[in-house]
Amino acid sequence: VSQRVFPEGFKFGVATAAYQIEGAWNEDGKSENIWDHATHENPEWIDGKTNADVTCDSYHKFKEDVKLMKDLGVNFYRFSISWTRVLPDAVEGSKLNEKGVAYYNNLIDELIANGIEPYVTIFHWDTPQSLETHGGWLNDTIIDNYVYYARQLFISYGDRVKKWITFNEPQQICEQGYETAQKAPFLKLHGVGDYQCFHNVVRAHGKIYRIYDKEFRPVQGGEIGITADAVYAFPKTNSVSDQMAAEQFIEFYYGWFIHPIMIGNYPPIVIERVDELSKQEGRVTSRLPKFTEEEIDMIKGSSDFLGLNHYTTILATFGDPDSFPNPSHDRDCGVLTSRDPSWKPSAAPWLYEVPTGFYHLLLWIKEHYNNPRVIITETGWAGSGEELDDPDRVQYIRNYLSELLKAIYDDGCNVIGYTIWSLMDNFEWTYGYTNKFGLTYIDFEDPNRTRIPRTSYKVYQKIISTRRLISD
Ligand code: GCO
Q: What is the ipTM of this complex?
């Protein structure tokens, strides 16, 4: 029985992100970000030609959000700050937008007044459009602009915010933003854009970590980390080759950016393969940029906790190199992915329920990175319908939490918190409003955007209040 009880100090939360929930895209001085821009310029890229101009309208309804969370009983709320709301001109030295700053002050104060700790994601994909026109994450001048922006957040909110996440999912920012054109800014710079982007993201991360550590932590006493999206990989068969493929998939998917932070520098397999393939392509230098020794040291150890967004697992096997675009990150990785027919699909094409994958991911992280403190910063289930009764989501939450407890009790994995994506239905990037992740239902035709708790909300509420996985 004790194995079904969450350890003392273990924390529960829910997550959202600014662009996905706030709306008020051009109110009170906010300027345009890459998602405003893309959804307005090319509505056909989004399911139903929708956008997040209004979405959940949390800019006006944040008190309702906090009330929902208070009733739910969560310990913390993970939300993100919109760069262009607090700094419309975006660049280093530019002026704070008082109304934008006030919005987050009010949200933070409301949370704290209700006993909910704010966990703040500094950047969740909404790059200022004015910086994107100068190359966005491909141009290393963005590092100092980001550092300036983050510093303003520590100054404005650091007296009350004690958990900071520098970046949400660098893999998606870079791979989907600059390599496969599945996310804003929707560029296809095969095998180059993603590496260049990530090199800047991780250096910005390291730089702001050192600044926080030196200048802010002594006074504010908080913690700062990063969040990776960690799809786990099982070998497709038991063959040695498939086992290598699974390992290679992980190293190319998130080892690529966790390794520099936890161990130092890119994973050897990534360096070797990208160097080798770049040479074969007749390039003089590798497509993978190189860190200086100082950068390696600055980045190494730059995370007080590791945030993991984990939803799903794939099966890995090596593919024919010619079946991948050349050059590309996928070709560098060389792995074909598939799903086991027994896995339950969700409404999102990439999301299948694989609870054991979650357990094995936690073991993998423990073994490869010396059992770091881990916060599950997102996990969740996509439905497509309007239904308030959501047994599939309830099953998913229970099954994943059960594996989490196993990893903690049987294997000593150092997981200290768990977060469900999401508090409420919201704008799911290119899927628009077709994928519903909410514990709370919202009808996006309803001008009031009334929040209606689903069954899963009530189940999570009970898990939190009893601190146990009970079965009714
Ligand atoms: C991500 C993002 C969220 C998504 C969620 C569901 O992981 O992709 O952090 O913004 O909405 O994951 O896909």
A: 0.90
